[in-house]
Structures are given as structure tokens and as C-alpha cells.
Please model this.
Amino acid sequence: MELRALLTTCAMAFRKRNIALSRGPTDSTTPQPEFSPSAPAPTQLFPGVRPSPIDGRPTTSTGTLSLDGILAGHAGLPLGHSIIIEESGTTDYAGALLRFYAAEGVVQGHKVHVVGMGEFWGRELPGIAEAKNDKRKEGKERAEKMKIAWRYEGLGQFESARGSPATSRTAAQVSTGASDEPSVFCHTFDLAKRLTLPVGTAINYIPLPRTLSGSPFPPILQNIQHQLSSTPAHTIHRLVMPSLLSPALYPPLASQPSSVLQFLHALRALLRRYPTRLTAVLTLPLTLYPRSAGLVRWIEILSDGVLELSPFPHDHMQSLSTLAGTTKDEERPQGMLAVHKLPVFHEKGGGGGGEDLGEDLAFTLSRRKFVIAKFSLPPLEGDREAQEEAAVAHSAGKMPSKKDLEF
Amino acid sequence: MSPSSRIPPLLQPCIRLPKDKSILLVTSTLGASANWLIIRFICDALSSTAKDGGLSDEINTLGEGGVNIILVSWMQEWEFWKQEARKGGGLDLDRAKREGRMAFVDGLRALFLPDGGEKNENIPVTKTTQTPPVRTLPGGIPARGPAAVPARTTPSASTIPARNLPEQTSASTKQGHYTLCSPDLAHLKSTIQTAVAHLTPTSTSTTTTKTLLILDTPSILLATTPTISPSSLTSLVLTLHTTLPHILVHSHADDPLLSLSTPPQPLELAHHNFVVKVAHMSRRVLSVRVLDTGVARDVSGVLRVTENKVGLGDLRVKGKEEEEDDGNGGREVLYYVKGDGSVRVFERGGGGDG
Model:
């Protein structure tokens, strides 16, 4: 009885916070069932936080289901940890990941801190996708998931790279026992929509000081530290740092090891000091700061997770698409994703949940989702030229040509 | 189950401390952390009282007392080490700390982050924004407590807020726990010496006790503070070595940090310099790296152990040992850290070993 009372009060408490949920940017006529605030399970006291299936530590979603899926089995970003996403080239796929992360935070009622960007950045956050169009797919997927015991499904989550909320639901069921209507851990966002920010200060924009003399970072830390100490203990914070050290945003002195590395070390200390309240995701332009540099390696050492995005050049993508023979469901990948380090997993030395680590991963960004899936070279069915060449070469050796074989 | 029995037999000789004074170097790379190895060192050292000498001619022939540990960590917090030691080694580090067998120096928590702030609500942001980068405050070691930076000018006892008091007392009750709040080497040295003082009085009981100092990633000091030169850091290691018989240095040895880029960056030079110097001083080098052939499901990485036989003046048995050992090239074993924290160490191709 007591429990039930607690749950209902919790649910009421969350209802207020989830303003952003029910208001789709366009007039979403049917409020989706997943987004209605539901009673959290006893272990899951705060919205958007759930225990890791591996060791029970609290995790939160990155806003991208398939990214959650590759985080060494924790099925989310463990609180108190950070990820740095590196990207080479001029594309901004990492920025999309960052936006999903921030949007998920806003939707879950977390406090989002954005460094170096103005309010326009927050206004461009993607809105929640309507589930209507996904339903068909979801149903199909669920049908094929029935083959696997649902209990194990939640543990791995590696195969759940298809971006439907169904998987997060099953995982939540695993972790919380049998709750009928678990709250959504990871939402699906639509890049073509805009998130309606709730009234008040959902996003804290931390400006970069335009100093030419010192490190720009200490005020940032103080700002976050102040926010952390002045909010109640159950508020989850997310730190978003787009394009770390990019000269467009940061003063030249920022890339001195003494300023950026001290900052990252302090950030690491801050994360560890608030192991249940803070996460951080940063992006780093690799073209400006190559991985072969010692500075970048230190940045990676000081971060808990390191992912590298290598988008395919445009023409390559075209050729892949013609050769790939992809089905309609499967979008062609837009680049490779390399996992260099994962939170928790690597600091322990590896082992436990990282079974998928060695796979080649590719990512595909579409309007609704950022999918990370195993990369496999498509079958060479369309490689007609090579076959014909081979046939010509063989026909010189008295092999029957293709036409001769056809009836 | 005694903690030492959790250490795989193949690993045992690698992490056993040499009989005489020694510096050991552990290197790791980005994908292959050496934290599990440091945990094994701690477990082996702390449990070495119950251990008999065994087949090796290493320590404990005289039944001497165990090995005390000072762990200085710039990368991980105490909680992490405690958890990992409990899971991987079945060891209660908190108890060891209470018993005066272990001291922890936290180089992460407050090194570049002014302490305090989480308990008090009323610290204005503007108060601290005026502080220049925290790094270069040679004398201005921010004291613990929220009012640190503005009140650096000798705060009288009355100005210290009352909320500061429990923290102070907890620091004193928390025996053996120290926090570095500046990258200054002199500060590091004095903190370590305080930690040594914490250890010795409680452990004078029976026989001579050794002390193992573990420096986890001291090279962060070089990377973050350009005023510290690698030679001053190595000379600090040597100075500490005069009083502490065993020092274990953990350092990252990734390619970008060791092989210099075309215009060599000061950061890379300093790191390279430091690692090479320590490697030359070391009696044994244990390096951990990922598999060259890619990621495997049942192998976490490769451990390479190189004994420095010609180091520090004992040139005597060089030829003989080279034959029976694997020469100066060292030997390599594979390891696999399991999800529960235990580790398996095995030869190449011998995956079945426990």
C-alpha cells in the first residue's frame, strides 16, 4: 500500500516536469502512450534513470537507442561518466548525437548545460517523433523479437539497433520486475521537428568568455558546480560541449594543454564527485586535432568513453548505394563508427558486456534516428562488370559466354 | 579464499615485489587499462603476510611483515579502487586503511577543481569567477572548504563557516586519506611523506615492514602543468625512493604520447622523456596493450613483462639468467578480465588456464 502511494506521488511529481512530452511541435493529435508519465519502478526513482543490467549502477540514456546499446551492456550512459565523440571531416553527425542527448535530457526533465552555444542551439533541438508511423515497424520488430527470450533481450541490447521504443520497454521490465507501464528511457526524436522547451530554464547556456589571456574553462566549471550545488539532489544534469576546442568557439589559448587538460581533469573530478547526478558528452573535431597528437590522446585518456565517427566521402557513399543491394528497410550506412573506449568497461580492464566490441560498426543518420549497426560489406550481386570481365577473360580460354548458356 | 589465491599463477611472479629496493613501471594504452594489474599488486602486497616464500627467491624468506601501501591516484577516486579490490581481490581496502596498512592520496578530486560547493548553497558564482586559472597558483593551494579561494588570506577560525567543521573532522577521522589540491611537486612530496607517517607508527609491531608507493599516472602533472619538467618529476621519484623501498609507477604509453609528431609538441616530449627515464630506472616493466590482431571475445589484452637484469649495478648473473628466462625481450601472456572482476592469465594459445 505504501509503495503504491509512493508511486502515485512520484507520478504526480513527474507529471509536472514532463511538460515537453505531451506537446509535440506540430499538433500531435494523439498523445502517445509511451510519453504519458507513468509510475516509475521502485528502483528507478528519477525520470530517465535506470539501473544497468550488468551491475545496477544508475544509467541514463544518450537519446540514441543504438548508442545506448553499444555502451558495454550498460544499456545507457552510466551517471558520473563522460563520452567524447570525435568526428573527422566537415560533417556534423556528432552534433546530431549531441542534440539527441540534449533533447533527451530536456524531455526527461534533466538540467542541460550547453557550453559555448547560444539559445539558437537549444531552439533547434529535435522534437519527439510521433510513434504513429513507427507502429507498423515496431510490431514487425516485436514479432521477430519474440523468437528470443525476452529476458535475455534486455541484457544484451546489442541487436536493438533499430530505434524502436519497444526494446527499452523490455529492458525496463527486466530491470524493474513486472511493471505494466514503465516510463520511457530513450525517446525517438525527429530531426525535422523542433522540441518545445518547457517554460523556465531547462537549458543553461554557458557562454565562453572571450578572454585572450587565460583559460576560458574555469568559469564553466564554476557555473556547473554552482548549478549542481544549488539544485536538489535528485536533479540529473547533462553537460553538452559541442566542438571542443574549435577555433570558431574557443579562444586560441584554450587548446593549450594546460588549459584544456586541466579542465578535463577537473571535469572528471566533478563527474566522480557527483556519481549519480552528472553526465557529459563532448564532441571534438578530429580534422583540427588529429588522434596522432599527444594532446588528443590525453583528452581521450581523461574521458570515460571515446567514439570516433568517420563519415564516408560522398562519392563513396553513392557507389556503395548502387552496389549495396540494400533493401528498403535498410538505409545505407553513412560512415564508420569506431569504439576506442567505453565508460566503466575499459577502466576495469575490459570484460563483461563488451562482447560486441570488435565488430565493425557503421552509422546511419536519418530523420528519425541515428542507427549504429554492424557493418557488413554487401554481397556483390550487382558487380556485373567484374563478372563480365571475368567472363571475357575466360571465354578467351574456350569458356562458353553467358549468352551461350542462356536458354 | 585468501586474496592471493585469486591471483593467477602465471601472474604471481610478475607482481611479486623484488627482494631489494626497486622501481617498477606499469604502462597501459587507451584500450587496455592497467587498473586491474595495479589491483593485483595491491592485493598481493596486502596479503603477503600469510604467504610463504614459495619457489621464488623473492621476499618473505624471513617471514617479515606485510607490505604497506600508499596509493596516489590522479585518475580514479577511492571508491573505484575500493570496489575493484573487493571484486577482483576480495580485499577490504577500507579496513586496510583503518589498520594503517594503506594510505590513499586522492589526486583527482581537488587537483584542478576547487573543493567544496556541493554542500553549501550560498556560494555565489561571481565569487570564484575572478580566480584566474587554478593551475598557476604556486602558493595558493586552495584549502578545503567552500570559502577557499577568496578567504585565502588566513581565514580566522571564526570566519570559517560552521559547515566546514564536519568536513574537517571527517578528514581527521578518515585516517589515511589525503587529497592533493595542487599539481605542485613539493605539495605532492609533503603529502606522501605525511601518508608515510600515517603508516609507520601502526605497523612497527613485529618486523620490518616494507612500503610500496603506487603512483597512478603521475604524468598527468606533466601534461597539465608545463612548468613541471620531466626531470624534476623523476628526481622526485628517486628522492622518494630513498625512503620508500618500492615504487610502482603507472603511466600511459600510447603511441601518440611516445612517438613524437613531426613538430614535436612539448607535451609529447615531456611524456616521452618521463616514460623512458622511468623505464631505465625500473627493475621491471609491465606493459599492457590490446591485441595486435584486433579485439577478441575472450582476450582483453597482452601483458608483457620485461625484467631489467642489468639495472642498478647488479651485473652478475646476466648471462645465466638470460638463458633460462626469455632474455631481455621479456615474456608475453594474454589476460582476460571477466565481468565479475576476476582475471584469467594464460599463455598464447593456452586459453584453458584458470
Notes: Chain A has one domain: 2-376. Chain A touches chain B through 53 residues (CB under 8 Å). Residues 2-376 of chain A form a domain with the Rossmann fold fold (CATH 3.40.50.300).
